[in-house]
């Protein structure tokens, strides 16, 4: 390789070693439809082989924000890749699509192959759970762009749904009458924690609390503050898959930046509005602590954090019981958090 390029801060040989190391990780995520292997100029996927008849592709891209800073400060890099997959795959799921394949972007000032491999192992774990294949990615070593030990992550996910199974369901002039209506039930799916949103405020609150990332978390027994806040974003694909197949879902809102306040209306028609049962929206201890330490109003909380609800399903009242039973069988703890009302 070019010694001049290495002296400038870019180690191509280290990048090549990383590609070889992550080959088995990518292979572990393979699924029907994947053509070829990583290392080419582009990833290939055969929709027919994946079993679709009249598919619509659905794409999503995202990062994990300043949650990365906690990974840097704690040295806990093994689950941040799961966050990356979940942020993208859950968004694709909100359109009624199941994730098919994923690509990642890992950028750093000086490539630490051990850290990079750990991060990408987390991405592969997330892909396996989501049922999507890691078919490619980019590792960029950019001297001078990042501080020592820092990196950035971005992900890109593509899924597909049959044309007549896309979400959300809104009745238009040519629709079937299956769309959302007043009285439809909102079912909340618990989050695993703060997921990947609100971390600039979280870091400010933790800094002002006098606690460090390695101190015991007063709101999470047996965990440090860092461990509690690095808990990966929950993936909802496996829980929703049977419900989508049974056509029992009218809409799914992934509760990310903007919280319940901004995200539930994104899946509703203009004629409907969410009506919450406040008694069903009790804050988990982690969010109670953030609210108290940050002196935050309920409105601030609900528009910044998921507040314990990582996803919201919209279902017909006649299906609600069956939906809850199916979710519980998948290991979820669903809770009815309200219904839809006319505007």
From TrEMBL:
GO terms for molecular function: ATP binding; phosphoribosylamine-glycine ligase activity; phosphoribosylformylglycinamidine cyclo-ligase activity. It comes from the Bacteria. The keyword DNA repair does not apply. The keyword ATP-binding applies. GO terms for biological process: 'de novo' IMP biosynthetic process; adenine biosynthetic process. Residues 181-339 form the PurM-like C-terminal domain. Keywords: ATP-binding, Cytoplasm, Ligase, Nucleotide-binding, Purine biosynthesis. Coiled coil: none annotated. Residues 56-160 form the PurM-like N-terminal domain. GO terms for cellular component: cytosol. Pfam families: AIRS, AIRS_C. It catalyses: 2-formamido-N(1)-(5-O-phospho-beta-D-ribosyl)acetamidine + ATP = 5-amino-1-(5-phospho-beta-D-ribosyl)imidazole + ADP + phosphate + H(+). Pathway: Purine metabolism; IMP biosynthesis via de novo pathway; 5-amino-1-(5-phospho-D-ribosyl)imidazole from N(2)-formyl-N(1)-(5-phospho-D-ribosyl)glycinamide: step 2/2. Its EC number is 6.3.3.1. It is found in: Cytoplasm. Belongs to the AIR synthase family. PANTHER family: TRIFUNCTIONAL PURINE BIOSYNTHETIC PROTEIN ADENOSINE-3 (PTHR10520:SF12), TRIFUNCTIONAL PURINE BIOSYNTHETIC PROTEIN ADENOSINE-3-RELATED (PTHR10520). This is Phosphoribosylformylglycinamidine cyclo-ligase. It comes from Aquisalinus flavus.
